[in-house]
Here is the input.
Amino acid sequence: MKMHASSILYEGNLPKTRSLLTLLIGMLIGFCVAELISFMTISEDIKSINTLASNDLHMQQPTKDVGVPTLDVIEHEHPHDNTTLADQLKREVRLLCWVMTNPNNHKKKARHVKRTWGKRCNILLFMSSAADDELPTVKLDVEEGRPNLWRKVKEAFKYVYKHHYNDADWFYKADDDTYAVVENLRYMLYPYSPETPVHFGFKFKPFVKQGYMSGGSGYVLSKEALRRFVVEGIPDPKMCLPGTVINEDIEIGKCMENLNVTAGDSRDVNGRGRMFPFAPEQILIPYKDPNFWYWNYIYYKTDDGLDCCSDNAIAFHYITPNFMYVLDYLIYHLKPFGVLRTERLPAKLKVGEFMPPPKEEPANSNEDSMDDYDRLYTTEQPIEPDAREVDEDKDDIEKELKTEKNLRTTKKPET
Ligand SMILES: *[C@@H]1O[C@H](CO)[C@@H](O)[C@H](O)[C@H]1NC(C)=O
Ligand SMILES: *[C@@H]1O[C@H](CO)[C@@H](O)[C@H](O)[C@H]1NC(C)=O
Here is the structure.
């Protein structure tokens, strides 16, 4: 029956069906052969890539020792950029930057600060214990070495006050492995009066009631804060610690509090951070170990991923000289074509006035951005805490804070 039917079909449509079948079979064979060939070629490629990778040096990436930036890194300008607002900021928010360095780092680090972000400050000074004509440096009469950091900071600000008090409105201290986006620093400061006693940085919670600014990403003092520090603070042992210690950032933080200089909030209007004590990668993809000292130190809770960081971020720390050039390229040159962001300046504040605290909007789609760490290390208590959990954490934090001095010293940078 079947035979019959198909033979009828066969017989009945003989010429048409045969050619159609031939075509289909031909296509099928062709397809199989093509697949086979492409599979063989791909495995050939994989084989040759593996051979190259194992045998040939030219498959390796350059290591960090291969290149160091030279002084001839090519510069080019962008004559068609509209820098109207940045130019206005440069005139109205005059910024003196001073960079803490030492004789070992003049050539290795400090000169690359000058070639990259440093050149954008209105005034750029390098504070060292030795003279250097290329940078040049301000030769402070302070012995080198980490124990002398606090004395060095005081001498540096005394020099700045004596020689440049009237040349700038804001005074930014940075390390030679800090990278700062100077335009964004001016933008954050723009609404504030330089006569307001305030300073900004990345705020840490312990040791000082109002918090203190991490030394690594730098801190910026208003003109009035600088005056109080040098005129009322440094000479008065009740205000600022005489002599010297390693932790300059904690000491200046205590000093600022004694002098009624507010510890400002450097986050943007969305509550995203702008100044950071680590490199961008370490902030974007944070080290999650809850025992890491950082989680007990941060003043404001931070979100992970892109929610961590302001689109107008200001400063990062632990930036190698090479990466300073990479950041300069990424920030000042590379642009996605056809995307322009509209920007405008905020209104000015009166002396003593502050920006309202940021609105912290809950991340709308990212479950991970509200995780255990956020809950445990937020500056506010959860609404209905699990008593056992909270007690345990409090103990942990206290234990951590007792040992943190050691931890911290091991984590802190060489300057
Ligand atoms: C440059 O930007 C400023 C401020 O945003 C604007 O007023 C001006 O029209 C712009 N100039 C050009 C040539 O686009
Ligand atoms: C700081 O403010 C407090 C309270 O207003 C005041 O008693 C104190 O004298 C001020 N100290 C300085 C150094 O201005």
Q: What stands out?
A: The first strand starts at residue 95 and ends at 100.
